[in-house]
């Protein structure tokens, strides 16, 4: 009996191995995560109270890789653990690699975003950088190998796929994985093997990187429940944290401000539609439209520029910030520049907000806001005015450096 909820990727390892070697493994009927695994009987099987745990006629085994090995070895006549001494070692090598280089780095990136751990931008950067390093190595190996070891599926493929599964399902979007085409090909080949499919069902890759949760979710984690282990399994692995009850929406105070002659949408249209002679048309047009009473301009400067050591991570950070600003699209326009051609990259921006202050709801709702130093633009200072223009039109060099990217929020 494999003690676990039915959507657990660590439990999938033993279940898939069991399909390959024809071993009968059952999931308990009424397993409840956070309850069933905290009983005194369960703690006797695994002192950490973690799942999965395999109950065998000879006693219990915990740690999903050990459980998968037990299942594979319980029928001697299969090639899941390799066909020679060197293959046994290589199967172990890739299982350890999956457990130490892939799994923890996916968790570092994903779990805070699911609200299971506190978010820390530096941890996330380390997680992504570590994962990229691991996937690059894996990609190189898979460029000339269909399977990790030998010429058929081994335990190494089962464990690697299950450890990648969580990432591919929840955070590794196509934009990220397309950098590792052989890993992609491998992953899709594996999840489409009939014995994998029987356990995990149809697989769907994540389409968006989940936004950072503001608070860590309660410690108790639950797993997706299903009626029967083999009935059309769904790719749900970890439930989204419980949502707070919706609160009634008060009117936005910015809608109560005296009307402004500046129509934000007109400016956004002018910005988007100006394809040539940008300075004379769009920048001049901006000043003609700008209403310093109804709107204010702000410079922002990332407080931790020295942390921007990986270009991809820096660009993602800015992309995530702009996604989270979605809630103020009606009241704001922004430009975010990623400056420099080599690390550390500088992130600086220009924002136009309705009203004379940075809207309070933005400060409250968008955690990124406090990662930046905000300075109100003083338009009586010609240099600041020129800086506003340079930012609007992505003028290069910007403060002596090339631009890696310029993103617009409109
Ligand atoms: N290294 C362990 C990881 C086990 C693990 O972290 N299990 C999680 C669910 S995927 C758990 O039981 N968490 C509950 C807890 O920490 O109390 C394995 O591969 O089996």
From TrEMBL:
Instruction: List, alphabetically, the SMART domains matched.
Output: EF1G
Biased-composition ranges for Basic and acidic residues? Answer: 220-229
- Please report a single Pfam family linked to this protein: GST_C
Name of the molecule in the record: Elongation factor 1-gamma 2
InterPro entries, per the entry: EF-1-gamma_plant, EF1B_G_C, EF1B_G_C_sf, Glutathione-S-Trfase_C-like, Glutathione-S-Trfase_C_sf, Glutathione_S-Trfase, Glutathione_S-Trfase_N, GST_C
Q: Ranges for the GST C-terminal domain?
A: 84-212
Residue spans with biased composition (Low complexity)?
Answer: 230-239
Instruction: Report the CDD domains cross-referenced here.
Output: GST_C_EF1Bgamma_like (cd03181), GST_N_EF1Bgamma (cd03044)
Q: Organism, per UniProt?
A: Triticum aestivum
Relate the protein's function as given in its record.
Probably plays a role in anchoring the complex to other cellular components.
Could you tell me which PANTHER family the record lists for this protein? ELONGATION FACTOR 1-GAMMA 1-RELATED (PTHR44372), ELONGATION FACTOR 1-GAMMA 3 (PTHR44372:SF3)
**SUPFAM superfamilies assigned to the protein according to its UniProt record, in alphabetical order:** eEF1-gamma domain, GST C-terminal domain-like, Thioredoxin-like
Residues in GST N-terminal domain copies: 1-79
Q: Give every EF-1-gamma C-terminal domain span.
A: 250-410
**Where are the stretches annotated Disordered?**
212-255
Q: Which UniProt keywords apply?
A: Elongation factor, Protein biosynthesis
- What interactions and quaternary structure are annotated? EF-1 is composed of four subunits: alpha, beta, delta, and gamma.
The record's Gene3D superfamilies line, in alphabetical order, gives: 1.20.1050.10, Glutaredoxin (3.40.30.10), Translation elongation factor EF1B, gamma chain, conserved domain (3.30.70.1010)
